[in-house]
Amino acid sequence: MEYGFSVPTRGPLATMENMASIVVAGEELGFHIASVSDHVVIPTDISSVYPYSEDGVFLTADGSGECLEQLTTIAAVAASTSSIRLLTSVMVLPYRNPVYTAKVLASIDVLSEGRLNVGCGVGWMKEEFVALNAPPFNRFRLN
Known about the structure:
This protein is an alpha/beta fold. It has helices spanning 16-28, 70-80, 98-111, 126-132, and strands at 4-6, 33-36, 85-92, 116-121. Strands 1-2-3-4 form a four-stranded parallel β-sheet. Helix 2 (70-80) packs parallel to helix 3 (98-111). The radius of gyration is 15 Å and the shape is globular. The relative contact order is 0.19.
């Protein structure tokens, strides 16, 4: 069995110093994976149902909408570590140009010496799609 943890991308722990301390300690403790979630922006008013909690509510760190970008954060974490695997959890594909994103992912994988794992999805937060002027949210939903 492998164990992992999430790297903070918002709130008071989302600084390079804090993230480096967390991931280095995690690596030293024998954790296998450090994951970074994907939000480009977190709207302050969210009515979409969060599918990963019993009550459907997405908790934000401080309500500001601020968060670090996923792939930049993973690259920074990679530079601070040497063996822990790096996971995009979950990269929302409709937010990004596919060719450019593939290039960024390949670069991170090369620079981290093959430690990148990519988890992909189509997203759940309609309000974030609207804020990013991404393709229509319902285009990617199965229901």
